[in-house]
Specification:
Blueprint: H1 2-12, E1 19-23, H2 24-37, E2 46-54, E3 57-65, H3 77-90, E4 97-103, H4 112-124, E5 129-133, H5 135-138, E6 145-150, H6 152-160, H7 165-171, E7 179-182, E8 184-187, H8 190-199, H9 217-271, H10 282-285, H11 295-332
Helix pairs in contact: 9-11
């Protein structure tokens, strides 16, 4: 009983994490794992984050991946994690569980599996975060690494399992209040700085020029296609909600007419000296219509917002590239 009260207190408490500090070695491990095993369009690479909570931030100092055969029925995910953390503890490496990471493609990560997994992690360790790494956006010149946590309102509603319209209205939960993004700070040790400096010597002359690549139509096209699919899903969800409201309104009207008619009949029977009709349970005659769940609609709305932000950011970066290319072209023109 005490554990249940503690769990409720944790879900309702405000977050004490202001930012996430990640060691550069962890970033390199995540990038390598996601590029090796999450290269396909439908492949997702996942792993566990290790570290500790210090003051007002979360330090992530190590990580390890989930094996490729984790979809096997005989594979025990919890046993695997405990065994790995036990081995790390034996070699004096940080072994405290502080979250997990996952790869994604074109920023499509707002979904139920992410919500369920993060709720499970955050219920066990309040400060847990999920790192989302996008290898496709990273190849375009910018490291796409984001940290997210569930808000206290989302944790409370998911624990209660109530995502109805009335519950969302009473708790004032919008799609922006399901996940909260936590700022990320990447920390390099002196040894890591020396390693990165040495690695730059092995980079070819042609490496790094893809950051100024102007052929970005394929990336924008794929993102816009995903955005259109989410908009279509939102339209279908809106139609379901509209039909539900129409059915509820029609049922309320029929119920009101039935009550008026029954009242008139009882008044006439009493005037004739006859006993009135017995009161019947109105809910048995007019069964309440089940409201459609709103969780899917909230997640799709959050995904649409994420796509719009990515398109805006990516377009702004490419406009800057166009201005740079134009300036270089003007300088190369011969003067008459």
């Amino acid at each position: 009983m005490a554990s249940g009260k503690s769990s409720r207190r944790n879900t309702e408490s405000e977050s004490t994490i202001d930012y996430v500090q990640i060691d550069c070695l962890v970033v390199l491990k995540v990038v390598r794992h996601c590029q090796e095993e999450g290269a396909g369009a439908t492949d997702v690479a996942q792993g566990v984050l290790l570290g500790l909570v210090a003051d007002n931030h979360l330090e992530i100092t190590n990580c390890f991946p989930f094996p490729r055969h984790m979809d096997d029925e005989d594979f025990d995910e919890v046993k695997y994690q405990m065994e790995m953390m036990r081995h790390l503890r034996q070699v004096n490496v940080d072994h405290l569980h502080v979250g997990w990471y996952q790869s994604t493609h074109f920023g499509s990560y707002f979904n139920k599996p992410l919500l369920e997994s993060q709720y499970s992690y955050q219920s066990s360790v309040e400060e847990s975060v999920v790192l989302i790494y996008d290898p496709i956006w990273t190849t375009r010149g910018f490291l796409s690494l984001k940290a997210f946590r569930l808000t206290p309102a989302a944790m409370r509603m998911y624990m209660e399992g109530d995502f109805t319209i009335d519950s969302l209205k009473n708790n004032r939960v919008l799609f922006e209040k399901i996940f909260e993004e936590v700022p990320i700070v990447i920390k390099n040790s002196h040894l890591m700085n020396a390693l990165m400096s040495e690695l730059t010597e092995y980079v070819g002359d042609d490496e790094g020029k893809q950051f100024l690549d102007m052929s970005t139509a394929s990336v924008l096209e794929k993102t816009l296609q995903s955005l259109m699919e989410c908009v279509d899903t939102t339209c279908q969800d809106t139609n379901k909600l509209t039909n539900y409201q129409r059915q509820v309104g029609k049922q309320q009207q029929n119920k009101h007419q039935f009550l008026l008619k029954r009242a008139q009949e009882n008044t006439a029977r009493v005037a004739r000296g006859e006993p009135p009709f017995p009161e019947e349970d109105i809910n048995k005659l007019f069964k309440p219509i089940q409201a459609p769940p709103r969780l899917d609609g909230l997640l799709v709305s959050g995904q649409i917002s994420s796509y719009c932000k990515q398109i805006s950011q990516f377009s702004s970066q490419n406009i800057a590239k166009l201005f740079m290319a134009e300036a270089l072209q003007v300088q190369k023109q011969p003067t008459v």
